[in-house]
Amino acid sequence: MFKVRNIHTVLRTITSHRNKNNFRNFVTHSPRQACNFIINYKFHQNGRESDTKNRRTHKIQSFALMGLLGVTLAYCDNRLASKEKKLLRAAQFGVVDELNFLIKDNVNVNIRHQLGWTPLMVAAVNNQYEAVRLLLEAGADPNLGEEFVSAKRTARDKGLHPIEALMMREEEFSGSLSNKASFRGFTALHYAVLINSFKIVKLLVEKGANPVIENEAGHIPLMYAKEGDLKTYLQEETTKHTAPLIYREKLTQRLHQLKKIKEVEERRRFPLEERLKKHIVGQEGAITIVAATIRRKENGWGDDDHPLVFLFLGSSGIGKTELAKQLASYMHKDKAQAFIRLDMSEYQEKHEVAKLIGAPPGYIGHDEGGQLTSRLRQCPNAVVLFDEVDKAHPDVLTVLLQLFDEGRLTDGHGKTIECKDAIFVMTSNLASDEIAQHGLNLRQEIEILRAKRLKTKQKDEDISDNITVSRKFKDEVVKPILKRHFKRDEFLGRINEIVYFLPFSRNELLQLVGKEMAIWAQRAKEKHKIDLNWDRSVESALADGYDVHYGARSIKYEVERRVVNQLAAAHESGFIGKGSTVMITTVWPENTASPEIKLRVRSSGSNNFVDVEQNKFSIKNLSSLFGY
């Protein structure tokens, strides 16, 4: 049984012979003709032998060789049958007439061999100047990169045997190159420099070859040049191409500097505090602390070795999550992937740490990656919100401690994500009752400071240090609760700022009601073409529904219960419809401690408002409403 290496040996013997051109001629013939050639050639070599036994032996060997080469040449004949492959062979051996014929036949001059090289590369590496010139004139791209890596790796990628890939590389490209080196990214210019052909190098550069293109190893052609005229020429050409790149880099740096200057000027004109207050009601103390910390980071006065870490404390619905969202929007211009929110109630079990950073090798979900690591890899400077961090398992806190302390995280694949520029925000309801009970005193303090600001026309940053929770309350009430729960001082020690969110004042509650009513007025106009109006007494009545434990959510639910329910019922019964105007008012029934909210409706084309009695949508009222 003949082995592949025997095929390789036979082909090498024939193609290295002085009559190898005869072999090239019969490659396109039938296997039978090719084998007859080998037999005749073999007998001719042994014609001087008179010994019959030796002749018989050579005849047997020749017939065996005939069978072997019949299969081999049939394979070669099929492999080189296409015009594109003929082009590659013509470029390799510099067959100018064949090249001209194929080019005129509109064969693609940038076609790739199945292992990754182009006709221009094979012509350059074989020092075929005329072939290189013809291919360039026909439109061959001199800046295409080689896809061949090594025989072993390329064979694996292409589904071939490594020896087969090696044979194809040596016979159809070049046998003078190392079979262990990687050639991925090599251009025709790289190969021309390797063979030290000054003539081809100059031709390639004149026809547009870029001398600063790097291969996979990061090397430009100049790095492979030998001392002499070729290297001097390449140095000059490389300098010519590098100068514009340096200019572009300087221009990019200048544009970046101008952008930073513009951002600084914008922050001066429109401070972060003002941006946040457009979206968040109240919480002036929290906004001031966060804005001051971010300002420190933005202006280069922060710790570059550690990320910023906040802990937001306060009741539910008080604005903790919203502040984190608005912070991400400010930092990253509403870039969606720059805000990462993780509900830590989903990480209450020990094994769920894998969900955060990814499962280790051999476990289910290893290929999927972690919920945190995969998203941090996409945006390493994101704003990350760990919602309700007090519910997470202690092992999760260990991972977070590494993240906060080192500014990096290792995923289940062993890859490290650097995220020292990220901002981490944790929220918790720990000590929320204590903060709520202490809120009255804190609110009074804020009201005093607000009055002082209005009186003296001071800016927020001028009095930011004064708008704080008392140190005594922090040390004697809040910190013991945090230590009891987290049970590790080093975790609390990595938090840059513990931010306290206070219960809303009366004025802030009225603002919340006004915003919620404005939202419903917009919906009524867009969905039903109904105008919605109300007086201030309605806002005051709805503000009374505030629950300190549920924050702004309690206001939202109060508006839905007392206003939206009536609107929906009136709409269903036909009291209000397209073109209607609804006035929401309050009345004080006798012997009641709180006012009732009523609807008054004016239909389209009418000048008078009609009272709508709740739960009494009768046909009589409906008829009088529309003038029947």
UniProtKB/TrEMBL annotation:
GO terms for cellular component: mitochondrion. InterPro entries: AAA+_ATPase, Ankyrin_rpt, Ankyrin_rpt-contain_sf, ATPase_AAA_core, Clp_ATPase_C, ClpA/B, ClpA_ClpB, P-loop_NTPase. It comes from the Eukaryota. Residues 504-588 form the Clp ATPase C-terminal domain. One of its GO terms (biological process) is cellular response to heat. Keywords: ANK repeat, ATP-binding, Nucleotide-binding. ANK repeats lie at residues 115-147, 184-216. SUPFAM superfamilies: Ankyrin repeat, P-loop containing nucleoside triphosphate hydrolases. It holds the Pfam family Ank. GO terms for molecular function: ATP binding; ATP hydrolysis activity. Residues 306-452 form the AAA+ ATPase domain. Gene3D superfamilies: 1.10.8.60, Ankyrin repeat-containing domain (1.25.40.20), P-loop containing nucleotide triphosphate hydrolases (3.40.50.300). SMART domains: AAA, ANK, ClpB_D2-small. This is Caseinolytic peptidase B protein-like protein. The lineage of its organism: Eukaryota, Metazoa, Ecdysozoa, Arthropoda, Hexapoda.
